[in-house]
Design goal:
With 436 residues, the chain is of the alpha+beta class. 56% of the residues lie in helices and 11% in strands. The protein has 11 helices and 7 strands. The chain is rod-shaped and about 130 Å long.
């Protein structure tokens, strides 16, 4: 809902400029209203409702000095009706009672018009209980005063008119107040909805940035670690075994090419819609897990795979499982030592997928768990475990990571497989048992 759809805030009309000026100068508006009301009271005071046999007559009577003074005072009090609505009502009520009590023989001057306007203002600027209390008090006292002090019968039309017009003023003010409150509520709800949309947009942007940051970290950390290892191997055997150095450099070239391809696909997510050459390749998943493990085996890390995860997985679960294995093995290659071995298992347990990565390394796991030793200078700890926890948490799963008894490290993730709900479980893991 926009501001244009809120009642009272539509497109500008021919009266929009005078209305805006009057809203900016309320005292001038109230002065003009008081002047107009004074003219109406003076004009009406020349009318005699009982002037002839055929109804009211005009010009057969004239207001006295007292009536003119009371009408002028009542109109002047209305200039301050917005600042002090209840005191203005009290003043106009007192002037009206004075006119009813001290008026000469004949109908009193219509000072009660000021009471109607003042009562309207009170009802429009206060709450409903206050309007009921003050309105009934004003109506009954003025009507009773008119009935007791008038020369005619108590049921004269002037007395009933006092009751009716004061009631109309209170009702009109209460209706205006209710509509104003309704419009304010709609406007506040529209502003709140706008703020909620902006906050939701900011939250989605932050989540997308975090997701892209995780992908970039996984891609860069994995491939750069492999490039670093293979480059070290090539440098070490360059002079004595050039054939092995060439093989290591080939692995470096392959790893760098894979890194560039994945970086291009990931950064392509930031492209604006409609731009040409946007990447359309699917995200990696467990279908290419063997190829991922081969890159680690080529880098000198023995990896054993056991999996019983037949069946399709949701794209988000498939990507998360792949990235968890990739990041965990990257940490093994970086921190577990040169002679470490790794075991990877991907199994389906009920309506979930369990991914476990084990190693038997003894190197300093600076990026792998709390309380671990720091890496040498220049190899500061990364965000591997944090990224894995964020991936798993976004899917509603759980991740545990920590040192194994007897040496090594264990990463275990449980990912809910919404697509596999209702299937019979294929593999069961006993509590505390580590999959092979």
């Amino acid at each position: 809902m926009t501001a244009a759809s809120v009642p009272g805030s539509g497109p500008a009309g021919p009266l929009s400029r005078p209305r805006s000026w009057l809203r900016a100068h309320p005292l001038a508006f109230d002065a003009a209203l008081a002047t107009a009301l004074l003219a109406c009271m003076v004009f009406a005071s020349f009318a005699d409702p009982h002037g002839g046999p055929h109804g009211p007559t005009f010009g057969t009577r004239a207001p006295g000095p007292l009536s003119i003074t009371l009408m002028a005072l009542a109109a002047a009090a209305l200039v301050l009706r917005r600042r002090s609505p209840v005191p203005v009502l009290a003043v106009t009520w007192a002037l009206t009672v004075t006119e009813l009590a001290l008026a000469p023989t004949g109908p009193p001057a219509p000072v009660a018009m000021a009471v109607v306007v003042a009562l309207y203002t009170v009802a429009a600027r206060t709450d409903r209980p206050t309007t009921w209390r003050i309105g009934l008090l004003t109506m009954t006292t003025l009507t009773a005063t008119g009935m007791c002090l008038s020369d005619g019968p108590w049921y004269a039309q002037e007395n009933l008119g006092l009751f009716a017009w004061t009631g109309i003023g209170a009702s009109a003010g209460d209706a205006v107040r209710s509509r104003r409150a309704f419009v304010d509520a709609i406007r506040e709800r529209a502003e709140r909805a706008e703020r909620t949309r902006e906050e939701e947009a900011r939250r989605r942007v932050a989540e997308e940035r975090l997701r892209i940051a995780r992908d970039l970290h996984d891609v860069v950390a994995h491939h750069i670690a492999l490039v670093n290892v293979q480059a070290g191997v090539a440098s070490h055997v360059m002079d004595r075994r050039p054939d092995q150095a060439k093989e290591a450099l080939a692995h470096v070239r392959e790893a760098s090419r894979s890194a560039l391809n994945e970086l291009r696909a990931t950064v392509g997510l930031l492209r604006q819609s409609g731009e040409p050459n946007a990447p359309t390749e699917p995200a990696p998943g467990l279908a290419v897990l063997d190829g991922l493990l081969d890159t680690f085996r080529n880098a000198g890390l023995p990896v054993v795979l056991a999996r019983t995860d037949e069946g399709a997985l949701p794209a988000s679960v498939d990507l998360a499982a792949y990235r968890i294995v990739q990041e965990a093995l990257t940490n093994v290659r970086k921190h577990a030592g040169p002679h470490a071995k790794a075991e990877v298992s991907v199994v389906r347990v009920g309506a979930s997928i369990e991914v476990t990565v084990l190693d038997d390394g003894v190197g300093p796991p600076a990026d792998r768990g709390p309380g671990a030793a720091a890496e040498p200078p220049g190899d500061g700890g990364g965000h591997g475990l944090l990224g894995m926890r964020e991936r798993v948490g976004a899917l509603g799963g759980t991740l545990t990571a920590g040192p194994r008894y007897g040496g090594g490290f264990r990463v275990h993730a449980i990912l809910p497989d919404t697509a596999g709900a209702g299937r019979e479980p294929r593999t069961h893991t006993a509590p505390g048992e580590e999959p092979a």
